[in-house]
Amino acid sequence: MSLESWLAPLKKTFSFIQLGNGNGDKSFLLKTGKGTSAKLKDIEILLQNRLNTEVFPAVPAQVRCFLRDGTLVILVQYPEPAMPYPRKVFRIIRKTLEEEQILVEVQMFLIVQGNVTPTLSGGNARIPDAELAEHIRLQDIGSRNNHSLVRSESGKLAKRKKKSWLLVGAGMTISSIFLYALTRPCVVGKCSAIPRAQKLANESTEIFKQTPLTGEIITAKTELVEAIAVLESIPVWSNYHEDAAYFIDTYEGKLKTLEEVVKALELGGQAAELGKNPPYSVAHWTQVKQMWGEAIAHLNRVKADSEFYTFAQQKIQEYQNNLGIIARQLNKEKQAFNSFKIAQDAAKIAEVRSYAAQSLSNWQLVEATWRTATEQLKLIPPQTTVYAQGQQLYQTYTHRLVAARERKKQEEFALRIYNQALSNAQLAEHSESINQWSAAVAYWQKAIETIQEIPQNSFQSSQALPLISSYTKSWENAQAQLQVALKLEQAKNDLAKTCSAMNKICEYTVEDNNIEVKLTSNYIQDVWQAALVAKAEENVADQVQLLGHISTLEKNLEIISVNAGIPLEVYNAEGVLLVTYNSSR
Predict the structure, then answer these.
(1) Are 266 and 299 in contact, with CB atoms under 8 Å apart?
(2) What range does the domain containing 457 cover?
(3) DSSP characters for 206-259?
(4) Which residues are CB-neighbours of 455 under 8 A, at least 6 positions away?
(5) Of 49, 67, 216, 429, most Cβ neighbours within 10 A?
(6) Tens digit of each residue's pLDDT (9 = 90 or more) over 52-97
(7) Structural domain tally of the chain?
(8) DSSP-based three-state secondary structure for 572
(9) Same domain, 155 and 239
(10) How many angstroms separate the CA atoms of 371 and 347, rounded?
(11) Measuring CA to CA, which residue among 280, 290, 20, 35 is closest to residue 146?
(12) 41 found inside a domain
């Protein structure tokens, strides 16, 4: 490249800066490829935010935009030291404008304490830094007046001297640029920058032929960054600029891929550290799981033709295993927390039910609820956040379960005894209905003894208490009826003996309240016959014997009436009442 051809764009740029007419109206609208319009002010804000985020995070840069002769001029001012790699700034600006589809010719300048670095039309090539003025203030650029971009330090020079000073300044600037351009890398003589960059890039990928350590990977990234920086130092007017641009694109692609790997390793390291020394909460494990997932996502962005692909695949396998472990730990923590909550809820329900329990079925439900609480606590595995607390609650809940189980057993026993007492009472009543008073007395006695076994603090005790009095009265009545039955039975036995003493003296019927004795006609006839014979024969002895027999019969019947406690009526064979023996006598 000849000196004249190299100076041509510089002269054009210098003339543009000094003499062009500009439009600095911030409300001026630029048409975009989206069919919309963008204000200069909006473009300034967009570019400034983008650059301050990606290039100037520590000391923010200032961006100003204006139109001059149909070209969008972008000025970026930042403090010293001068940026070593301005190409990155140009790439970011160019990419941002492409995204917004700003379809105009663009000129870009970097300003560092009065030094201006412009680009050629369209922003596709970089012009070296030129000392165009001692001081440039961004707020003066883009005004509606035809002011020059180059101003003096004081800003008070007379208008009549302005043109001469500009010519002197221009001459000095071109001389400075020429000397500066000859000192840039790969302009004169051999180019050592490209081999050096290649060496750095090769070293950065060489370590991935084996499994590298994290520190080695960070070093590889640093080497790639340095290789790109070396290539970016080659100016546009160098014969090696095209080769440098090719390698820059190649290495930037590798760097982008390597940054994915580095980011994955950083996330993996953080996730591994956060996963140490469990237990942790569900939220903590969820965060760790997410970090492993993000790390895997970064590794999956490494393409199959990349030098880092094999390493990335190894790490993906490793991280997926770790992700599985964390997922299981997360599920375990979730299940533990869920079991713990179910146990606590069950305990609260059991407490309420125990206070309101009024029957065996209620206590069965209380016991089942406490059992649910303890079983849920047993499901909580070790190395979970609620394990220790769960063990403490397990002891407490177990005691409550035992108490509920004992109370349930007591109520079961009370109900069983209560039902047995009712059954004995029913048997006693049945025995009474068939006049089995001896059995009735026995059943009533058993019913009383059984119901007295019911625990006093059981629910059946309140129902059993009035039954004790009732059963006792029934037992006493049965006892009385049994005595009556026994007397009547004795009366029957005595009547059987009395009536059958001779051939057959009498027939009898025994009722609960009365005894009827009917003398047989044969007996009456025999007595009368014997009396008539004894009287006719004047046999005093037979007469005395006959009277003694009749007296004994009357006495026996009277005794039977007294012993039975009921009246005894004596009838002749024709049914005529002869005599009544009243037990009350």
Answers:
(1) no
(2) 415-483
(3) HGGGS---HHHHHHHHHHHHHHHHHHHTS-TTSTTHHHHHHHHHHHHHHHHHHH
(4) 410, 413, 414, 461
(5) 67
(6) 887 766 667 788 888 887 788 888 887 765 555 567 788 888 888 8
(7) 4
(8) coil
(9) no
(10) 9
(11) 20
(12) yes
